[in-house]
Please model this.
Amino acid sequence: MEQRKMKGTEEMVSLLGLGCMRFPHETPGSDDIDVEKAEKMIDYAIKHGVNYFDTAYPYHGHQSEPFLGQAMKKYPRESFYLASKLPMWYLKKEADVARYFEEQLERCQVEYFDFYLCHAMNEERFQMLQEYHIFEKLAEYKKQGKIRHIGFSFHDDYEVFEEILTSRPWDFCQIQYNYLDENSQAGVTGLHHAAQKGLPVIIMEPLRGGRLTGGLPASARHILDHAPISRTPAQWAFRWLWDQAEVTCVLSGMNSLEMVQENLCTADEARPGCITQQEREIYRKVVDAINENMKVGCTGCRYCMPCPRGVDIPGTFAAYNRISSDGYWKTLTEYFMMTGVRRDYTGPGNCIGCGKCEQHCPQHLPIRQELQNAKKALEGVPYKVVKKVLPYVMKY
Model:
């Protein structure tokens, strides 16, 4: 696999990085990692050139870091790059910076992080960065050899990105970027600004949490299915990113060995300048089709979880968005299985409007309002009838 040099360093990073937020689950709906399947994915990725692994404190219900630390023990420490992130929203006082950082080193079973980020930076957390002197503390860890490169991941408007980017001598940054988000958040302007400053740029959410693959509306899928070049939706999405020389590494939260294999093949073929003008017109049409059908811009990152009232927020929004792609009745069937036949109802009817979810949403979605919209769309008369009748049917 091609490697791209991290600007300002001697590091050579694989085009494809393994994002450790979406490993296969041991049981559906749980945070438990299927260790056997996940380790096979890691082993295959390493064997085929992947050397960048990105985790974080809250991923998989706090299980990602410990799992990755154990899984990587069989590989020489210098043979891979490990990235993790300071959980900014957990910090209550200045001393928490050191407490979480040291805990993360222990959880990952390493003596240093190659890349360490201030997680999900926005305007509020930028203020925290200054108030708690976080960058200065991380710089001290860098002097001690516990961090090699300091960066930040970002979810906010471009103006905030520019302010954060120019405020400190960062070593790299990480942004949400894909052909649907070309002009959202940091966007292409942020990508170019960071590159002009000499910063490597790591890409997250290349598939928009599956929105650009299985979550495509029928009209968008039709465009890709009838394109003159036969590619999967994931291949279209990754090629768009790797066409841009400013992109250093693209993280993919793969959850199967098949995904790893497909993305590796795409990485072997994609290069800067590989996208033709004809293909750009196809991307434009797909974006228009997605925007016409999208109801809520959830990426399924699960930062909003757990909900104090047990609402499956990402699951509800995924079903809400699927109405346009899968049709009402198929979506309703799947949604009912997710919420209606469970012992504990997990639908939006449980929401009490506390707003905890909105405090952590990287997309700044009006989650409470959208949950009510989803409830109206998904839990109409057909849903209520089935829910009322099912207990009697089950008796016989």
